[in-house]
Amino acid sequence: MIAHHVSSEPPPRGPLDHLISTLCTRLPEERLIRDPLRRLAYGTDASFYRLVPSLVVRPENEQELVSVIEACREEGWPMTFRAAGTSLSGQAVTDGVLIQLHQGWRHATVLDDGARIRLGPGVIGARANELLAPYGRKIGPDPASISSCMIGGIAANNASGMCCGTAQNSYHTLDSLRVVLLDGSILDTADPDSVTAFRQNHAPLVEGLERISANVRTDVDLARRIKHKYRLKNTTGYALNSLIDFRDGVDILSHLMIGSEGTLGCLTSLTYRTVPEPPCKAAALMLFPDLSSACRAAMVLRGTSVVAVELMDRAALRAVDHAPGMPENLRGLPPGATALLVDVRGESDAAVKHASEEVQQVLEGITTLEPIAFTTNPDTYALYWKVRKGLFPAVGAVREVGTTVVIEDVAFPIECLEQGVAALTEAFHRHGYQDVILFGHALEGNLHFVFPQGFEKPGEKERYAALMKDVAQLVAVEFGGSLKAEHGTGRNMAPFVELEWGAEAYALMWQIKALFDPCHLLNPEVMLSRNPNLHLENLKPLPAADEIVDHCIECGFCEVVCPSRDLTLTPRQRIALVRERARLEELQAAGDQALSDAEQDWLAAYEDHSGYDLDTTCAADGMCSTRCPVDINTGELVLRMRQERLQGRAMLARRIGHHFSGATRFARTGLRLQWIGRQLLGHRAMSAISQGMNRLSGGQLPQWIPALPKAAPIKLLGRVGDRGRPDKVVYFPSCATRVLGSDGGSRAVMDVTLKLLDKAGYDVIIPAMPGHLCCGMAFNSKGMANEAIHKARELNRELLIASQNGRYPVLFDTSPCSLQAEDHLDARLKVQEPVAFAHDHLLPRLELAPLNERVAVHVTCSSHRKGLAGRFIALAQACARDVVVPDDIACCGFAGDKGLRVPELNASALQTLAQAVEGCAFGVSNSRTCEMGLTQHSGIAYYSILDLLDRASLPAKA
Questions:
Q1: Nearest-angstrom CA–CA distance, 687 and 710
Q2: Looking at residue 723, what is its pLDDT?
Q3: Half-sphere exposure (CA, 13 Å, Cβ side) for 255?
Q4: 517 assigned to some structural domain
């Protein structure tokens, strides 16, 4: 007989100080995060719930993880395992111990020529696919957040996605896994010895699972219900299909782990059976007059060879129709219009064409607003999918500031999709939700609905509760669908699991939980809960804080490209801190109620200790905006904060700007002295002395690094003359290249640029006062905005004169400076970035003899932001036989001179570089300061991409 109630109450928690003391004997103290600022920041996830962990722990290997789990168990502390924190339903928040699996958990091994891949929980999903791409394979799950979510979360939520369906999710493509259980034991299902030992040492658990499985298979009605539920996408509750699909207790256990949301154990490694990734693709954005016709089209397409059918209603399209590159006709669609993004793939262009024609044939009887047209253009194809994958954050960004955004994820039986959508829409309107947005995987009957929700006004929480109760009844009971198709149960649907599954199946889940976690310490209140109001508690505030970031919904898409993500904070976490400060200051100003002691302490800690994490270690490179669906650049917020903090230094900035040529001469003198010093003292002594001076100055004095070059030969600029050539270019050497010369193995960037332009047949014009001019970035990056504007105006004046009011192009030899110039200089000036100019204008003029060497390429932040990554790589590939582009490195973190003042930022950002470029002869980039940091941490020398082009080219033939 199945027990219908298992205690869900965890034991009393022991003293936190005692737990910390115990953990300090097992882990380095710096990996136990106790301060209130970082606890709040690290506890933030993508959901609309917030709990602040009492302690954040960062184990870096399995042994440390076991120690943490054992200590928490002994002290009665609940624990939650966190990978990327992109989950949407509150699975990864806790007020207990948050265990982060990031560094140390990024191991990845391709097996059997790509047929399998073994991954750590900290590997980003897209990274796994990058490793598999050379084999024409990928992992089965493909959630919209795959470029930021991690394998641990993908498996723990059984996330699926657009092209995954039910056949290719983690449950069905699982080969083996390693898991740590609450008692500290480790099971590796790929290791026969581990399995044998586990059967012996955990006989009650294994036999208990087998007994439950046998009982379920003999219960005809329950078995039929389970089979029905899993013909749909379904992540509500535990994977009860494992009780029918398998009879062996270890097989049942391993598949129960998929989708268990960290409530049964912690996955430390997962091996997938991979799936083919056809090389040829096409997509069509089909427009239908209403939701009903789009749903009918989806049903018809289910019988074809399409890979994905993504539905987007009119409100969803309205949220993205302004995105760059989107078709103009989206803005004029009728109110009920609905789009289907249809994807077809094949091994050849002919196969794709055949699939496209098949789609058009089966849809002939269904009205569309425009003729169906498939595109194979890679840019258009990528744009369609970028918009679809960024739809949830983009929708959330148009909400009223101060409200949160709710996303839920249901699935109807496909034959009921049209009726289900109509009923769902009627329920929204009945409860006063007029601005709900629908989108999702129509091929599987899987729909996401998104709406803004404020909980502060009277009656709003009750209105939301009534809506969710009706939605749960409608989807789970009336239509026999699933309340959570692919986002995991989480906190928002935990109170409704029993409603969907029924009392008997729900009791099975509690029994499973009791076998693994009788003390209810593993992620309690997630998945199963006796609290009917759980979904209405611990709601995350999103107060107005700054117009730059107010539209952020904390999705976390930005984090993967942030250079400080492993050192201090990410953009999402910086925004969380700024918001909490704004919330508390608003409460304080209102005076309705006194802040608690903890809140006052938090504000004091923010004022005293946030500078390093929030500001000092932010590169302000803008890379976060390249991944943000609504283009939020958190660096702009940090720069504004710097400007406010440094208002008193305006006079100093003005003095430096007024004597800028003297400042650069001083810097070159310093480089000459350091070159002498390194010869006299050696590297070790120079490092020790400069590190000490850097610490004593509070990071104000730069720290010496071996990659520092000699002083630049500024006199080169005086030798440039007019040769009477018809093609002319204005060359503006950045202040970095006017200061930083060669490192002994390369030539100064100015020298290379001038020779390359001469080789390509250009006459070069140098603007007047080149030593005094600056684009302003050196000032802007330090929060000295007024002087940055002043220097930009000076430069603008001289470049207009030199270029004859824009008649000639203006070449910048450093990419970040060209980006700064484009944003601040006269529109008449044809500002040229070095990579774009070299690719578009120099290559056609030069005869190439590619180097027979392996060359590493680092695409700088500014090049990424300008969309030049493709041309950057193409330029390098034209100049070298073998080009390596490290996939997991975005920004190098050098950030102007931060690599010298905050060298740990550069080191953290490039921690994987040396391994990634092993075997390369040298590397190239397009920012002189970045090249210093890359050289410092790679084991090879990095030069300008122009240097590579010069080496590989001959003068063009007349």
A1: 17
A2: 80
A3: 21
A4: no
Write down how long the chain is: 958
Q: What is the predicted pLDDT for the residue at 3?
A: 37
Q: Are residues 780 and 928 in the same domain?
A: no
Per-residue pLDDT at 2: 35
**148, 441, 134: which is closest to 274 by C-alpha?**
134
The model's pLDDT over 389-424, given as tens digits with 9 standing for 90+, comes to 878 777 777 788 888 889 899 999 999 999 999 999
Residue 950 backbone dihedrals phi, psi, to 5 degrees: -65, -45
The domain containing residue 786 runs over which residues?
A: 661-832
Domain count, the chain: 5
CA distance 557 to 575: 13
47 within a domain of the structure (yes/no): yes
Strand partners, 345: 281
Q: What is the DSSP string of 257-305?
A: HTT-TTSS-EEEEEEEEPEE--SEEEEEEEEESSHHHHHHHHHHHTTSS
Same domain, 613 and 477: no
φ, ψ of residue 97 to 5 degrees: the values are -100, 120
Q: If DSSP states are collapsed to H, E and C, what string results for 654-710?
A: HHHHHCHHHHHHHHHHHHHHHHHHHHHHHHHHHHHHHHHHHHHCCCCCCCCCCCCCC
Q: In this predicted structure, what is the pLDDT of residue 163?
A: 85
DSSP tally for the chain: helices H, then strands E: 40, 27
pTM of the predicted protein model: 0.94
- Predicted confidence at residue 745, as pLDDT, reads 66
Please check whether residues 386 and 430 belong to one and the same domain.
yes
Confirm whether 870 is domain-assigned: yes
> Are 855 and 919 members of one domain?
yes
* Chain centroid offset of residue 696 CA: 36
Rounded Cα–Cα distance for residues 590 and 423 (Å): 43
C-alpha angle 746/747/749, rounded to 5°?
Answer: 120
Concatenating the DSSP letter of every residue in 556-588 gives -TTGGG-TTTTTS--HHHHHHHHHHHHHHHHHH
Q: What is the 3-state secondary structure (H, E, C) of 745-813?
A: CCCCHHHHHHHHHHHCCCEEECCCCCCCCCCCHHHHCCCCHHHHHHHHHHHHHHHHHHCCCCCCCEEEC
Q: For tokens 């994820």, what's the residue?
A: 409
Cα–Cα distances (Å) from 85 to 435, 660, 746, in that order, read 27, 46, 44
Let me know if residue 857 belongs to a domain: yes
Question: Residue 871: which CATH number?
Answer: 3.40.50
C-alpha 72/C-alpha 522 separation (Å) is 10
Query: Of 274, 300, 335, which closes a domain?
Result: 274
- For residue 113, count other CB atoms closer than 10 A to its CB: 10
Please check whether residues 110 and 239 belong to one and the same domain.
yes
Domain C-terminal end among 250, 274, 298: 274
> With left for phi above 0 and alpha for psi between -120 and 50, is residue 867 left, alpha or beta?
left
SS3 category, 173: helix
Contact residues for 853 (Cβ-Cβ < 8 A; gap 6+): 880, 881, 882, 920, 921, 922
Token look-up 């203006």 returns 810
Are residue 218 and residue 235 in the same domain, yes or no?
yes
Based on the fold, state whether residues 128 and 1 are members of the same structural domain.
yes
Residue 479 maps to which CATH number? 3.40.462.10
Nearest CA to 223 out of 207, 212, 208 is that of 212
Residue 105 sits in the same domain as residue 85 = yes
Pairing of β 953-954 and β 847-848: antiparallel
What digits encode the pLDDT tens for the residues 78-112? Answer: 999 999 999 999 999 999 999 999 889 999 999 99
Indicate the burial class of 89 (C-beta count within 10 angstroms; 0-12, 13-18, 19 or more).
buried
Q: Cα dist. 688→163, 694, 887 in Å?
A: 54, 10, 33
Read off the tokens for 220: 């005809």
Question: Token pair for residue 399?
Answer: 């909400």
The parts of the chain modelled with pLDDT lower than 50 are 1-6
